[in-house]
Each structure stands twice: as C-alpha cells, then as structure tokens.
UniProtKB/TrEMBL annotation:
Keywords per UniProt: ATP-binding, Kinase, Nucleotide-binding, Transferase
Enzyme class: transferase
Pfam family, one: DAGK_cat
Its EC number(s): 2.7.1.-
Domain DAGKc, residue spans: 1-129
Annotated protein name in UniProt: Diacylglycerol/lipid kinase family protein
GO molecular function: kinase activity
C-alpha cells in the first residue's frame, strides 16, 4: 500500500482550479493507495500541514499549487526521505516547468502514480530553502508589488516589474564567492537552481537542478533603455546576449548590504524581509527526491 498525502492550495493560480480529494481518488485504486488530502487556509499553512502529514509516515507528499506552495512543502521534506510530488496549479509554475511536469492535472496525477524519481539540489539563503530561485535586487520589489496586486497573472507581474524599474534604488553591495570580492550597486543579485522563473521567463536558461551548483546573475545599475533590453531578454530567455549581466556558477556566496539593516528578498517568488543585511547563500546537493 502506497500512502500519498496531498497538500492543496485552493487559491493558487487564478484560484479557479477544482482539485479535490474525491477527484484525486479516481486515479488511485483504493486497494493499492491510501490517499489523504489537506487544504491550505493561509500563507505558510502548508508548512504545518506537511509537518503533521509527516507524523503519519507517508511515502509521498504532493504539493498542489505554485512555487510558493512547493517551497513550503519541499522545505519540510529535506532529510526525511519522503518523496515530493507536484501538481502545478500555480501562476508561474517555474519548477514544474523545468521538471517537465505536465500542467494538465490528470497527466500530472499519472506522473505521481508512475513514481519515476530524481534527486534535485536545494538552494539555501540564510535559514530558508529555495528550489527555483532567490534574489535580493529588483526582483524582491517586483514580487512584493505582485503579491499586493489584484490577481496573480502574467499581466500583474509585468505591471509590477515596470513600476519597480522606476522605483528601485540600487544599494551599495558586496558579493563574495570563491576568492572574489565584487563591490556593486546591483540592479539584480539573482541566484537560481532551476532554468525557469515562471511564465516561461528565464535569467538562467542553462541552469540544472542536479549539478550541485547555483547560477548567480549579477547585473549593475542600468539606464532606462538597458532595463527595457533586459526585460526583452528575460522574456525571450536570451540573457546571455545582454552584455551587462555577469554569470557565475557557485556553491557558496555571501551578499552584504552595509548601508541596510534589513534585506528585501524574494524566495521562490514570495517576498521576505530578512532581519539582517548579510545573506549567506549555498547549495545543498541532491537533497530532495521528486517524482517527474
Ligand atoms: N487559503 C489561502 N488563502 C490565501 N493565500 C494562501 C492560501 N493558501 C496558500 N496561500 C498562499 O498563496 C500564495 C501563492 O501560492 P502559490 O505560490 O502556490 O501559487 P502562485 O503564486 O499562483 O504560483 P507561482 O508561485 O508558481 O507563480 C503562497 O504565498 C501561499 O502560502
């Protein structure tokens, strides 16, 4: 008997999906599968639901939602040996797209039933895990604005990005990795484990979830025209042609903003106000088993 526990975010994406316990059970014969499902009621609820589910010794816990829900569930699974399933119900669905998990609910349930596994890396920024990406530049402001917008859709994301590009003030920053010390006033300090940010956009189209490395993108302050060019390249996954972006493969780095007390960050597309001006970022290789 395989025990699969589903954690469903009822409001992810446009909030109009109808994934339910009853619907899921149709795909898993009762003589072979034990199925349980919980629904999240608020931000961070998937953390406590996953912790409670783990006490019942499931074989698989399935995050049904977007990158935010996946982050909450997957963060709890590290070191447990419990496998992660994903039903992509989010708006951006960056991680699921990288993993080629079908966006069709029925097909993604089949992926879980087939139980083909891979082990992927996780990123860490201070005490928080990330599986897709994290950033402490303009992307943190974009996500903060996006979270306050009426709907989580591509249009809201682009509107948040345009507004942030006028408002964002680069801070004096020092980035340390390997033997390098890079002083920069960054437009972006973006670290990615996956090759997609969501909505098919990417700053790191060559990133791999299994290489034991994170892809660091550093972009200095930009003129108005350069910001438009960067937006174009992100939408077209062609940032390698944007000459002001520096790309590095790293295992550990530190980002310090000496003039700040707190750091605005985005972690897997959720905004965080970190209570420090120093971020230690690292990769934890092959720590999560995912069904693909
Ligand atoms: N019942 C709920 N009501 C309000 N917010 C919720 C609820 N359940 C979960 N959340 C929060 O909803 C937010 C968005 O979830 P999620 O990331 O899964 O979807 P998304 O943002 O549409 O997708 P993506 O991150 O892929 O773009 C997360 O911060 C999550 O914690």
């Amino acid at each position: 008997m395989t025990y699969i526990h589903f954690i469903i975010n009822p409001v992810s994406g446009d909030g109009r999906h109808s994934l339910s316990d009853l619907y899921i059970r149709q795909f898993f014969p009762a003589d072979r599968f034990k199925i349980r499902a919980d629904y999240t009621l608020r931000k961070k609820h998937a953390l406590s639901l996953t912790a409670s589910a783990l006490e019942q010794n499931p074989d698989i816990i399935v995050a049904c939602g977007g990158d935010g829900t996946i982050n909450e569930v997957a963060s709890c699974l590290i070191g447990t040996g419990v496998e992660l399933g994903i039903i992509p119900l989010g708006s951006g669905n960056g991680l699921a797209s990288h993993l080629n998990i079908p966006h069709d609910i029925e097909k993604s349930l089949e992926v879980i039933r087939d139980r083909r596994k891979i082990r992927i890396d996780a990123g860490r920024i201070n005490q928080h895990y990330f599986f897709s990406n994290a950033g402490v530049g303009i992307d943190a402001m974009v996500i903060k604005k996006y979270e306050h917008s009426a709907g989580r859709m591509l249009f809201s994301y682009i509107r948040a990005a345009v507004a942030s590009s006028f408002e964002y003030k680069a801070q004096p920053t020092v980035v340390y990795f390997d033997d390098r010390v890079i002083p920069i006033r960054p437009f972006m300090v973006f670290v990615s484990n996956s090759n997609e940010m969501g909505y098919s956009m990417s700053l790191t189209p060559d990133a791999m979830l299994t290489d034991g490395r994170l892809n660091l993108v550093l972009i200095p302050e930009l003129s108005f025209i350069e910001k438009i060019a960067l937006g174009y390249h992100i939408l077209n996954r062609s940032v390698s042609r944007f000459k002001k972006a520096q790309h590095h493969l790293v295992q550990n780095l530190c980002v310090e903003m000496p003039n700040r007390i707190f750091t605005d960050a985005q972690i897997d597309g959720e905004h965080y106000k970190l209570r420090t001006n120093s971020c230690r970022i690292s990769v934890a290789p092959a720590v999560l088993t995912v069904l693909v």
